[in-house]
From TrEMBL:
<dbReference type="InterPro" id="IPR023296">
    <property type="entry name" value="Glyco_hydro_beta-prop_sf"/>
</dbReference>
<dbReference type="GO" id="GO:0009044">
    <property type="term" value="F:xylan 1,4-beta-xylosidase activity"/>
</dbReference>
<keyword id="KW-0858">Xylan degradation</keyword>
<keyword id="KW-0624">Polysaccharide degradation</keyword>
<dbReference type="Pfam" id="PF04616">
    <property type="entry name" value="Glyco_hydro_43"/>
</dbReference>
<dbReference type="GO" id="GO:0045493">
    <property type="term" value="P:xylan catabolic process"/>
</dbReference>
<protein>
    <submittedName>
        <fullName>Beta-xylosidase</fullName>
        <ecNumber>3.2.1.37</ecNumber>
    </submittedName>
</protein>
<keyword id="KW-0119">Carbohydrate metabolism</keyword>
<feature type="site" description="Important for catalytic activity, responsible for pKa modulation of the active site Glu and correct orientation of both the proton donor and substrate">
    <location>
        <position position="135"/>
    </location>
</feature>
<keyword id="KW-0378">Hydrolase</keyword>
<dbReference type="InterPro" id="IPR006710">
    <property type="entry name" value="Glyco_hydro_43"/>
</dbReference>
<comment type="similarity">
    <text>Belongs to the glycosyl hydrolase 43 family.</text>
</comment>
<dbReference type="InterPro" id="IPR052176">
    <property type="entry name" value="Glycosyl_Hydrlase_43_Enz"/>
</dbReference>
<keyword id="KW-0326">Glycosidase</keyword>
Length: 333
């Protein structure tokens, strides 16, 4: 299969692909030209609503856009920047978990509920208690437990939640870089800031526990370092293949999609390699899903818009595994 653009007539990004009722649904962010100035915190990503698209034949089939499923105006606690989202089903209800900024400029995760995968979704009045940062991926394990992987650096604010004091307790001394802002530029040889994972409550409305770090180890069993171009930055995704847990993510400023394998949803995960080399556009973001016996990688790039960062278009192509369970690198032609 050649890589296929999905819906290039509107700018969608950050695809979260899920199979519900025999159809493949993709929940993206909805990019548009808001005229906001570019900055390193992603201030130009001013998304204000979500759509959902579906298809029954990924390679050639028609793509249905169901229109708007949630608007920031409907969400009491959120002011702006509806970034990545994902949907999970439980007991016939569909829970859209999304990231947006509150009226103090702080990212949280919110929940909106629907009776159908195509919505409409009704938001909760408040964000999830204790939630922070961006890019939720909701993963339902075979035992029915639901986990949310989340977090993103720089504009995603994840670094705000790891204080230098806490890091010092973990044996990481940032030295002169020890304040919230400059922690981003931590010495290359300290462990990289990890993504977070949390089990969700039975009603899928709240965190059921304090979030855990998602540790990615190198082949020697050491956490990937801040200076490693393959370390976590944002865009977590979790899928299961042959009983193993595959944690995949974007490396942000080095622009790769990478993955690591573990034995349980919390990890640790052992780094395996690159899934996708940098695409056109600063960001790279993906999801991996099995549909009708084939595996697919959904991602985005900026080729149709020719924009440098934020007017992105969805793309999909097949994903293949080697016999040992490693993923074959995808070529983005
Ligand atoms: O879409 C806004 C942000 O760009 C996402 O949250 C990141 O993952 C990156 O794709």
């Amino acid at each position: 299969m050649k890589p296929r653009y999905l819906y290039p007539s509107d700018y969608y990004a950050d695809p979260s692909a899920n199979v519900f009722n025999g159809k493949l649904f993709v929940y993206p962010s909805h990019d548009w030209e808001a005229g906001a100035a570019f900055d390193d915190d992603g201030g130009h990503f001013q998304m204000k609503d979500y759509h959902v698209i579906s298809m029954e034949d990924v390679e050639n089939g028609e793509v249905t856009d169901y229109g708007k499923i949630l608007d920031v105006e409907q969400v009491a606690w959120a002011e702006k920047q509806m970034w990545d989202n994902d949907v999970v089903e439980k007991d016939g209800k569909y829970f859209l978990i999304f990231s947006a900024k509150d009226y103090n400029g702080v990212f949280h995760l919110g929940v909106a509920v629907a009776d159908k995968p195509e919505g409409p979704f009704i938001p909760q009045e408040q964000p999830m208690r204790g939630s922070y940062s961006i890019d939720p991926c909701v993963f339902k394990d075979d035992d029915g437990q639901i986990y949310c992987y989340f977090g993103g650096l720089w504009g995603g604010q994840l670094q705000w939640y790891k204080s230098p004091k806490q890091l010092l307790k973990e044996g990481i001394d940032l030295g002169p870089a020890a304040d919230k802002k400059t922690q981003l530029f931590a010495p290359a040889d300290v462990p990289a800031l990890p993504s977070s994972v949390v089990r969700l409550s039975d009603d899928v409305m709240q965190f059921a526990e304090a979030p855990h770090d998602v540790i990615v180890l190198d082949k020697d069993g050491q956490p990937l370092k801040a200076g490693d171009p393959h370390r976590f930055f944002e865009a977590s995704w979790m899928h299961k293949y042959n009983g193993k847990y595959y944690f995949s993510y974007s490396t942000g400023d080095s622009h790769f999609l990478c993955y690591a394998i573990g034995d349980n949803p919390y990890g640790p995960f052992t780094y395996q390699g690159i899934i996708l080399d940098p695409v056109v556009g600063w960001t790279t973001h993906h999801s991996i899903v099995e549909y009708k016996g084939e595996w697919f990688l959904f991602y985005h790039d900026c080729v149709p818009s020719n924009d440098i960062t934020h007017l992105r278009s969805l793309k999909v192509q097949r994903l293949f595994y080697n016999e040992d369970g490693t993923i074959q690198k995808v070529v983005n032609e």
